[in-house]
Amino acid sequence: MINHNAASLARRYGLASIGLLLSILLYLQLGEAPTLAKQFSLLTYGQADEFVEVLFLHVTLPRLCLALMVGAVLGLVGSLLQQLTQNRLLSPMTLGASSGAWLALVCLSVWLPSAIGNYDHWFATAGAMLATALVIVIAGRQGLGGLPIILSGLAINLLLGAIATAIVMTHDQYAKNLFIWGAGDLSQTDWSWVHWLLPKLWVVPALFILAPRPLTLLRLGEQGAAARGLSLLPTMIILLSLGIWALACAITAVGVIGFIGLLAPNIVRSLGARSASDQLAFSALLGALLLLLTDMLALLASNYSANMIPSGTAAALIGAPALIWFSRGKLGAKDQQSLELPKGANTLSKSLPYWLGLLLLVMLFVALFVAPSLHGWQLKLNNPITWELRWPRVFAALAGGAAMAIAGVILQRLIRNPLASPDILGMSAGATFALVLTTLFTGASIFEVGSLVAFLGSSAVLALLLILGRKHQFAPSMVVLIGIALAALIDALVAFAMAKGSDEVYSILGWLSGTTYRVEPAKVVLLLVVVTLLASISLALNRWLTLISAGDDIALARGLNINKARLILLLVVALLCAVVTAVIGPLAFVGLLAPHMAVMLGARKAAPQLLVACALGALLMLLSDWLGRVMLFPMQMPAGTIASVLGGSYFVLMLVRGSKQGR
What we know:
This protein is mainly α. The chain has 30 helices and two strands. It has helices at residues 2-28, 36-45, 51-85, 97-111, 120-139, 147-170, 172-175, 178-182, 192-197, 203-210, 212-218, 222-227, 232-254, 260-270, 276-302, 311-326, 352-369, 384-415, 422-425, 427-442, 451-471, 476-500, 505-512, 521-540, 542-550, 552-557, 562-583, 590-600, 606-630, 639-662; strands at 370-373, 376-379. Strands 1-2 form a two-stranded antiparallel ribbon. A hairpin with a 2-residue loop joins strand 1 (370-373) and strand 2 (376-379). The longest helix has 35 residues, at 51-85. It is globular.
């Protein structure tokens, strides 16, 4: 048995090493490369006489070394995280470490640019560690092995991403250099980054020495590990700190490259790696190979593109579908249950609709007529110019918030999952993906692409959800992971767009933040008409929602054609997402926040929940749009960014509350 295992181990490492060597040889031949004999001479003596040889020595070779180093770090840290938490879907990306490092470097570039070059890796490490600590605290010790930590990471990613976007948009002159970094770029012009990164990876051998025994004991469970002398909390802190240090240094050098840390450990386990040390070592080896192959694809694709395609974009395009593939059956049985809805009133107060209506009217009046100016706060009632400028954006915010709230109610009742919302589910991301992709490849303005493209994107996600979700009964794990995968695709495309440096960069970034600025009146009228029509249809179908949310057996017993009802309701959601995304842009958290608040206020039946959530969603977006106009006057912030910060904070608080109740 020992000989068989040793032979299998030797065969696996031998094949992977041969594959890596062949990939290195192939990588060195890409583009205009010197002959093999000349390459060997350059590697031996380092004397370059021609331009091609200079490129080989100072561009290709350092890029190759960085790909191998960073890939190994990502694979190693991914394996470490997954073994520490016994969660196969955890990675630096899903844990929030990447977004924490990104936000820290954005802040450093804007407010302390003189520190870049000397302290950027320290800031990246601090940001990554704080984000990771926050995710772990939110999830709680009991949530590390399942869905709670994935949800916590998603919430922190969205929240920190919204904050970083807000900073970039208000300080764009300082943040331009971050766009290429955010795309995950391995391009090099000399050996400086290799020399910078190599000594900082002293933690890699330290992890190979310190980690195997604790990781092996953790497989026995907390009590079993403690019985054998393992101090769980100090051990996790030390190992996480070492891993995040290596990760932050790699991110500082080349930018955010996702999915390698997720894919490598999962592939390693599928190939038969079982021991802790074997998984760590083979994940590092496979991570280097995967990033090298990904970078090769990016270089080859760049030959057919007007712009260089960053490696991070290529990794996301490959890794996002792989995330959905590996998610099948990977989470525990407890994650197939719905998250408990927030507590609140059991019945809806009779006076609440009147108070909501009054509050909505007051907020509408404030949004239209109250705003600061250079001479202080002003009330502009009879100013036609003010009315002409404000009414489109105010009513666009109102309609967009109401639409996303209705979509959230339908999805949560339809899938019987309180985490379901157009953004978490990925339907808004599908519309966004289609619009951004069309913009990048056609050169058209993102404001001119149209609702049809957005509807096709939402429908594609809808089809994917129906195919994958039915097998898993629309489990929370599948719902969330589809959203994570699509969000990663969007981030990759946005980073690619930013790296291009075109005139459309800031318009795309603003639109992706959910902007009502300069919305065309004709589109606002169309938005109002479509949302009103779809809201009426949703109210008319409230009986379907009631029956489906009660269970398929009850719905069938009452004579409901479940498949037909589910398809029609999902099409309503897809249309709502498409029209809002096409006119305003993606709106995060509104479809999650408004239905939850409606339930907390006592609207537990379908029809009241639709109405109350509709009013709350409209209120949230009106408030966000108004705050975006007045907070940093005369500068403006997109309404969607403000809504994301407000809604993301609520989502984090909800997860913290749920984890405390679970304890």
